Amino acid sequence: MKTSDFYYDLPQELIAQDPLEDRSSSRLMVLDKKTGNVEHKIFRDIIDYLNPGDCLVVNNTKVIPARLLGVKEDTGAHIEVLLLKRKADNVWETLVKPGKKARPGARIDFGGGLLKAEVIDVVDEGNRLIRFEYEGIFEEILDQLGQMPLPPYITHQLKDKNRYQTVYAKHDGSAAAPTAGLHFTPDLLQQIQAKGVKLAHVTLHVGLGTFRPVKVDDVTQHHMHSEFYMVEEDQAKLINDTKAAGGRVICVGTTSCRTLESATDENGILKAGSGWTEIFIYPGYKFKIMDALITNFHLPESTLLMLVSAFADKEKIMKAYEEAVREHYRFFSFGDAMFIK
Question: Which Gene3D superfamilies match (predicted)?
Fold first, then answer.
């Protein structure tokens, strides 16, 4: 299976640069994975496709303002640091630009001394381990100095930080939003629950590994970066009970999907607990627990496009994507959604 098998041509102007005013007014493509049949709807119509007894599984991770702009203490050169993963209390694995200015021992100043840092090591793929020094509470300083780490294909400035956050975001730790969840409003979630659909929360802190391009020709040679996930006891029970009663487990986003598929055993039973997952789902994978998926439109040749192709058959997905391009759907993080049933 070649990476190029997952290429499609996307005009630049279809990449959504800004979130819509009303989250639930984005478009929704409904794809029947058995027939390949496609319907065009508005996202709030999702309620018509959910049945009493179904369970909607959301990822309640919260994006941290992980992008820090600073200067080198010795030269005053500008430097950008993106927080990826907390390794110890004040030590983070980071992505630093430009990397050549961030050798071990380099010291960086953010916010006129409010936050200081020292590069202590170079690790995988040139990432830097950085130790931070500050007075007070790190999260509060980060909130003051940090910017939302928008993907590189979004070039517009985000006016409201909360628009790159789901309405149910709870646990700090992501370097990117679980974007399928951005379409839900509190009102829509209330209507869905009033219909008899259960809502389960899991956590997967999204790392940038999810968005890294696949650089190998052979898909199976690609290595996923590990991401931390958490499934609470009561939420695992809710999801398992849904399955046992004949309801559908519907994942909101590829991150919820990857959490459930990582934590489910061979008998299709979801286990509570936490850990690190490197699960990479591509065609040929047998899904253990997910019955349907709400997701955005993903980058050509990406691991996320491979995941949806594993769920709904690559030919059907590529055809649906061609139709989305023809119909001028909006793509990627702030774009439109797809429901694969």
Answer: QueA-like
CA 188 – CA 272 distance, rounded (Å): 28
**What distance lies between CA 8 and its chain's CA centroid?**
21
Residue 199 near residue 58, CB atoms below 8 Å:
yes
DSSP 25: G
The structure tokens 């949806």 sit at: 308
Tokens of 171: 């646990």
**CB within 8 A of 132, min separation 6: which ones?**
90, 91, 92, 115, 116, 117, 138
Residue-level length of the chain: 341
What are the structure tokens assigned to 278, written together?
Answer: 């490197």
- 226's CB contacts (< 8 A; 6+ apart) are 207, 209, 276, 277, 278
Span 284-341, pLDDT tens digits: 999 999 999 999 999 999 999 999 999 999 999 999 999 999 999 999 999 999 999 9
Cα–Cα distance for residue pair 90/14, rounded to 1 Å: 40
Cross-strand partners of 128: 94, 122
Are 271 and 235 in contact, with CB atoms under 8 Å apart?
no
Round to the nearest angstrom and report the end-to-end CA distance of the chain.
Answer: 25
Q: Could you tell me which residues come within 8 angstroms of residue 341 by beta carbon, excluding any fewer than 6 positions away?
A: 30, 31, 32, 33, 49, 292
Strands 27-31 and 198-204, bridge-based pairing: unpaired
Q: CB of 69 within 8 A of CB of 78?
A: yes
CA distance linking residue 327 with residue 314, whole number of Å: 20
Taking only Cα atoms into account, the Rg of the chain, rounded to an integer number of angstroms, comes to 20
Give the single-character DSSP code of 213. Answer: -
Q: Which of 337, 333, 338 is nearest to 18 (CA)?
A: 333
- Bridge partner list, 92: 86, 130
pLDDT in tens, 224-239: 888 999 999 999 999 9
The dihedral over CA atoms of 77, 81, 86, 90, expressed in degrees to the nearest 10, equals 30
CA angle 303-55-249, nearest 5°?
A: 45
Whether cis (ω within 30° of 0) applies to the bond prior to 98 is yes
Per DSSP, the three-state class of 262 is helix
The overall pTM is greater than 0.90: yes
